[in-house]
Structure formats: structure tokens, C-alpha cells
Amino acid sequence: MTNIGLASDLVVPLNDGRRIPLLGFGTWQLRGNEARQAVSRALEAGYRHIDSATGYANETEVGAALRESGLPREEVFVTTKLPPDHVGRERRTLEESLAKLDADHLDLWLIHWPPGGTAGVESWRVFVQAQAEGLVRSIGVSNYSLDQIDELTSATGVTPAVNQIKWSPFLFDRSLVEASRERGVVIEGYSPFRAARLNDPVLTEIAGRYAMTPAQVIIRWHLQHGIVVIPKSAQRERIEANIDVLGFELTPEEVAALDGLSGH
Ligand SMILES: NC(=O)c1ccc[n+]([C@@H]2O[C@H](COP(=O)([O-])OP(=O)(O)OC[C@H]3O[C@@H](n4cnc5c(N)ncnc54)[C@H](OP(=O)(O)O)[C@@H]3O)[C@@H](O)[C@H]2O)c1
């Protein structure tokens, strides 16, 4: 069984001194018993990073699966997100998330979308305060532009640790990677498969060289770029396959060929 969450070469440092496991488990569209079962299977398979959101309506099930796993809370990195229409009730939403997750802190709290298309400076101030109080270890954003991130930084002096955005080889944007790094913002990619064409010949050819699947090559490509990736699956075999990506390494030429898919 792979336990990637603890491997030091598979975490990336955040701008607040913490670390985030590069490979996590996505939970969008998993609800009720299916969510609980999928998260339990993910934890059994070795994932130590779970991505939830208030908007996914599955925090209670994520909390139950964490509790049932028997894993020490410190071993699992847990993220949830503030829905943009919860502006003005950020603190209450955080308390509800903690209660549902059965946790006394989050590892990462994200503003899910720019509220009303703005940077959401007032919400960000609540995030900064929650971090200062230890209720959340790290704070970040999702679906933000660099300008919106810069607005949060100049208003508060605190730069988001993470920007969770749609990402895959087909969306690769080197200038965004570099500009995010310059700011100390880690890119966390979402929808690695939904934002890809899994039957693309470049991808299937590289996968064939290693007897891996295109999905596994996409995960591996993220890891080699130091970009966090959070694949979702409801199926045990895929949950296990999506984390079974340590037994091969893409060459620099293969990484470059995959980067090039964004131009197609
Ligand atoms: N911040 C945001 O706005 C935002 C937006 C979207 C997603 N997210 C986060 O990112 C996570 C991942 O993104 P996502 O759920 O949109 O999509 P995804 O992980 O790219 O893809 C999930 C889909 O791919 C299938 N799949 C999983 N493993 C596969 C494999 N090995 N081979 C082929 N197909 C496979 C799944 O089906 P089965 O379940 O049937 O296996 C499901 O239909 C979400 O769960 C959520 O946590 C965040």
C-alpha cells in the first residue's frame, strides 16, 4: 500500500511554513454513503489529503470516514471551502465546517470562488484572523486571477498559500506557474481528468511505454511539476490506481510533450 502523504519528496512547502501533500483525494459530487465509502477507501489506499467544500454537502461524511479510519488527525490534510455566497457569515460557516468534519482545525480553508467576481478582501480578513487563532493552519483561494490574489496581498499583507484552479496538461500555462511561484502561491490543480482528453494519442503513447493508464500519467505529470493534484473517483480500483504512480518517472522530454498538449 502506498502512503504518499508522508513521503517528504511528495509534499510542497507553503508560504506559511506548512506543507501540503501533492496528491489528494477530490470529493466533488460524492454525497451520502457513497462519499463516506469513497473517502474510507481513499484513506485505506494511502491518500492523506482530502479535498472537500461546504458546497459539496459532504463534510459530515468526510468527517465520519476520517473518524472511522482511526488515523491520527495530524496524519491527514483536510481542506474545505467557503461558498462565495457565504460572504458576511464566514466565521459561522467555518464553525459549521469544523463541527461537520468533527475537527478542531482545518489544514486548508479556501475561498471557493471570488465572491461576486471581486477579490473578497473582507472575507480574506476573516480567513487571516481564523489562521491567527489556529482554527485553520493554511488559507488560500480557488478560481482566482493573479490580480485578485495581488489585491488580497496588498490589502492585508497576507498572500494566499494556494490557488486551486482547473489544471491538466491540456491547460498547462507556464507563465501562470512562474507568476504564481514568484508570489509564493502553490497551484493546486482540479479536474485533472475532466479537463483532459484521456484518449489523446500523445498521452496514450506515453502511458503505453510504462504500462500505465493515461490517468496515471496525468497524475505523475502534476507531481513532477510540483503541482498539487486531487483526482476524484467513486470506484475502488480507480481510487487505488490514481495513487499508484510512484513506480515510474516521466523523462523531461515526456513532461515537455505533455506540456505541449495545451497548445492543441
Ligand atoms: N475549486 C473548485 O472550483 C473545484 C471545481 C471542480 C473540482 N474541484 C475539486 O477537484 C476534484 C477533482 O476534480 P473533478 O471531480 O472535477 O474531476 P476529475 O478528478 O478530473 O475526474 C473525475 C471523473 O473522472 C473519473 N475517473 C476517476 N479516475 C479515473 C481513471 N483512473 N480513469 C478514468 N476516469 C477516471 C471519475 O469517475 P468515477 O468516479 O466513476 O471513477 C469522474 O467521472 C473534485 O472532486 C474537487 O474536490 C474543485
Helix content: 40-55%
Q: Which class of secondary structure composition applies to the elements?
A: alpha/beta
Biggest sheet: strands side by side, in what order?
3-4-5-6-7-8-9-10
The CATH homologous superfamily: NADP-dependent oxidoreductase domain
**Number of separate helices:** 10
Question: Based on the structure given, which CATH architecture is correct?
Answer: Alpha-Beta Barrel
Could you list the spans in which at least 5 consecutive residues all have pLDDT below 50? Answer: 1-9
The count of strands amounts to 10
Integer tally of domains: 1
CATH names the topology as: TIM Barrel
Mean pLDDT: 95
Shape summary: globular
What is the chain-wise order of helices and strands? Answer: EEEHEHEHEHEHEHEHHEHH
Measured between the Cα atoms of the first and last residue, the distance is 37 Å
Approximate strand percentage: 15-25%
What is the gyration radius calculated from CA atoms? 18 Å
> Which hetero compounds are present in the coordinates?
NADP nicotinamide-adenine-dinucleotide phosphate
Characterize the biggest β-sheet: 8 strands, parallel
The level-1 CATH class: Alpha Beta
